[in-house]
Amino acid sequence: MSIEQWWPKLKPSTREWLIDNNGDAVPAEILDEIEDAGGSVASGAWWVGENGPSGFYFSDEAIDWIDAVGNGETPDTR
């Protein structure tokens, strides 16, 4: 599932955290919420970046997408 599909299903506080901390490692509890909303970090989707010992990170494209949303823009649909 693409970020455009699961993003609206996140709690507003989670979306705010992701915007405010864009580019940082995503905490486990937020990853759980993303997965509960339909986003699988194991899917290889375009928004999935690195996932390893240092944590989960969004791809550069996803960081740009989140930045656009945080700026009140409507990012291109993938």
Description:
It is a single chain. This protein has 78 residues and is α+β, with helices and mostly antiparallel strands. It has one domain (3-70). The chain contains four helices and two strands; from the N terminus they run H-H-H-E-E-H. It has helices at residues 3-6, 12-20, 28-36, 60-70; strands spanning 48-52, 55-58. A two-stranded antiparallel ribbon has the order 1-2. The longest helix is centred in the last third of the chain and has 11 residues, at 60-70. The termini are close together. The mean pLDDT is 94.
Give the percentage of residues in beta strands: 5-15%
How many runs of DSSP E, i.e. beta strands? 2
The largest pleated sheet is described as: 2 strands, antiparallel
What is the distance, rounded to the nearest whole angstrom, between the alpha carbons of the first and last residues? Answer: 11 Å
Structural class: alpha+beta
Q: For the CA atoms, what is the radius of gyration? A: 11 Å
Give the integer mean of the pLDDT values: 94
